Amino acid sequence: MKSLIMAIGVCIALSGCATSHYTAGRDFSSANVSSITKGKTTTTELKSIFGEPYAKSAVSETDEKWIYTYTNGSAHAQSYVVTMKVTTTGIQKTLDVLIRNDVVINYTFSEGPAPGTTTATN
Description:
The protein is an alpha+beta fold. It has helices at about 1-15, 45-50; strands spanning about 15-25, 55-60, 65-80, 85-100, 105-115, 120. It has two helices and six strands. Keywords: Signal. This is Lipoprotein SmpA/OmlA domain-containing protein.
């Protein structure tokens, strides 16, 4: 009986779990993307709707690229005596805006699972 209790105690001691949460960028409303009108929406309007972009870069003398991005997720690792299970979940949103002379000329929006969202067992 003592051996069984000791074996159970060793198994509990060797198992464990850890969870970590992460975010990158600043969250923005996906519903507001539909308010962008190519050729009409200005940079002032973009800032009032979404705030300052995560990144800005010059594309040419007249064109600029603004990126709004947000990633939110968590990773959970569960260690067993012989195996380990890792689960990663999360979402990622990216709004990529091309601006010419302070007016939106094109944009793309994507939303979905964060890269690496999986369940793996070793």
